[in-house]
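hiii, so i know i said id send this last week but things got crazy w the move. better late than never?? heres the sequnce for the chain we talked about at the cafe, plus the structure i predicted for it. fair warning i was half asleep when i ran it
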Amino acid sequence: MALGGGREIGANSFYYGIDGHGLLVDAGLHPEKLGWEAFPKITALNGHPVDTLLVTHAHTDHLGAVPFVMQHHPNAEVYATSETIELSRIMLSNSASLLPKQHPAEVIEALTNYTLIELPDVIAQFRPLDLGTSQQFGDGRFKATYYTSGHILGAAGILIETDGQRIFHTGDTSLHAQRIVGGAALPDGPIDVLVSESTNGIVDAYLTHTRERELERLITTINETLAAEGSVLIPVFALGKLQEMLMMISDAMKAGRIPSVPVYSGGMGRRISDVYDQFPMSRSRTNPKDRVADIEQSELPRRDGLFSGKFFREPSIVLAASGMMQDGTPSYFLAQRWLRLAHFTICFVGYTDPRTPGYIVSHAEQGTRIKFGSMRRDVPVRCKIERFRFSAHARREELLEIVRRLRPKKVVLTHGDERAIAAFGELIVETFPETQVSAPEVGKWYSLSS
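okay and structure toks below
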């Protein structure tokens, strides 16, 4: 049963009933929904147990509702990689601070595990299950093995083996290597069931661009902006995208491909970068010698100082959360002034949900006026806006390659909007006619047994 993340991205949580043992993979929050709709539908289990909770990685749409689930199932054993456990201290604290701003008071009052007193105890219950290791659960009912999934530091795909059946749950995955984080490892095929993410399941022109070409375009755009005495704003996710972009920009500066100008970052992204540096030998990493702390960075001002930042007076590169310019974040506030400056540029480097301010800004045309977020007035679009794809998710072709390698009898598509799931599902059926494909609706039971 999908408790969230079925035919959508957000509140990702998937329940496996295995011979009376309840396994939950992930418990995330939905970034765009309000109230209880933002949480996994835990009540849909209708009395079924949650004995084990395996977390694939530390992004909020997979991790953020773990305290909520543990409130309902306090005896559940929670496992994650050591990297994810360290990142969860930052990510869950951030979720706890944002929830009162996003949800009704009656919801917040019911979330006792998110308080400053309870949250550290919740995180203290996490147990490590590291990449490349296995463990038996449910008195031997099944074995789970964590495979490197790419995506971000410590992210895992999970092979579930039970009663002669093999189920592989990809989590968020990517076969291609990024700058800091390498590509995914897969179990040997064949398997019985593949539960796959499908974020990039629809044909998208940006996905045909190689990372090398996209990097060339980004470097060209940055140089053109700096030469015009302007500054570049790059909206980023604090976990994953910030660290990747910092390293790529640093590489370009060291190679003399970008002038050495101030690079701004800040907030919890700095603390997350410290965790990346804490695990140089992680199976996720491409090079143990890379240290984000070695990259010279200026501190991004807090909200009151954003509009008077030095980057408005001298050419600079600003990496600011959030990647989708969520209302109230630094990138959201900076965009309000950035858009008005003709010699400035905003570079989007990842996916933006159509329901977010970032989508509106990223698709705006110069010479028009736009209204985004909770702004009351339109803003003139004078700056240059560019979109790049440095996706931490598998490309459509890679998703199909995973199916090809694992040769599953059944494929269950998750973590994608309905258009992406439909398009990718059709491609699987065309390419592998013998494969059964389904896309679970939230709250409905599906049989995975052969």
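btw The first strand starts at residue 2 and ends at 4. thought thatd interest u
miss u guys!!
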